[in-house]
């Protein structure tokens, strides 16, 4: 099946009792026990366990026990996301940060997590200020540089590499195949945060990633009405460990948020096409504008970065970062926008403008931000699916007023 067909038809068979085409919302917290529990206890293979707990709408859900452990609505979402990533298993969490916390919980004492210097502020906040404060060892390098990455790996003890590509907010791209080769050489797991690209534009598992991660809050849900996270993978042993952690930690995606995310997921490919079309139009306008100093957009990248985009992405995505020249008042620009609000998050149907230094990346010390080029004047634009002419007009009007 092709991508959108998978998004619509994976993970759910029409209800045999009433023929419902759309998966129902299961709000129950518990289930009557039958001859099988809904949790993995190691007594059978994970593959057999998956078969045992398949959703059977005509047998009173006897293979489920407690909704923290497994819920029918969440399971449909997990199965669908795994299918879209080309993986066997999926795990849904209450947020992208919760997914990261479960990944970090895989680490044993003296094991190290390696992540990018150009990382989402929440990733930095959790690894450095929460897990790091409890003794987690971490290293931060520019993962777009294979030499720097290998030097960090040669120091030993790196168990997990966590990488975003494109990165947030500078939209750098990392060669996933190269990083996967390095990870395997040095015995590390490669986790690729695919939030900005989505599975519609990038397939990290096919390029060698061990685990694919998402904030489903963004493009996966796509409607700015649900917070969630997701991991997909194919390794059975690793899945069993993560499934145990998901249940033990308990930061699971609620049934209603699972249902909302499933609803949004069905139109992901269509939405991404419009996001990209609009982003290309806006980036072309910004890069020519006399008041703009720099524009960061994968569709404009040349050289090595441009080659990576062409190699591993189906398109440049819907995110643009840009800097207004220092002599102009960026604050006045923000206030002059009428269609595009100043707000955190991204990937929804509506366009949103973010000021990373004071918002999404405010937890990163200023000196660290400046080292990677994240200046106080940087703006991050999540391009929505509105009419491109209206968005361009709003931006030009605001730029005229600075």
UniProtKB/TrEMBL annotation:
| Lipid biosynthesis recorded as keyword | no
GO molecular function, one example?
cystathionine gamma-lyase activity
Q: Which residues carry this modification: N6-(pyridoxal phosphate)lysine?
A: 218
Q: Which Gene3D superfamilies match?
A: Aspartate Aminotransferase, domain 1, Type I PLP-dependent aspartate aminotransferase-like (Major domain)
Keywords tagged on the record: Pyridoxal phosphate
Record keywords: Repeat included? no
Among InterPro entries, the record links this protein to: Cys/Met-Metab_PyrdxlP-dep_enz, Cys_met_metab_PP, PyrdxlP-dep_Trfase, PyrdxlP-dep_Trfase_major, PyrdxlP-dep_Trfase_small
A GO cellular-component term linked to this record: cytoplasm
Family affiliation = Belongs to the trans-sulfuration enzymes family.
What is the protein named? Cystathionine gamma-synthase
Organism of derivation: Candidatus Wirthbacteria bacterium CG2_30_54_11
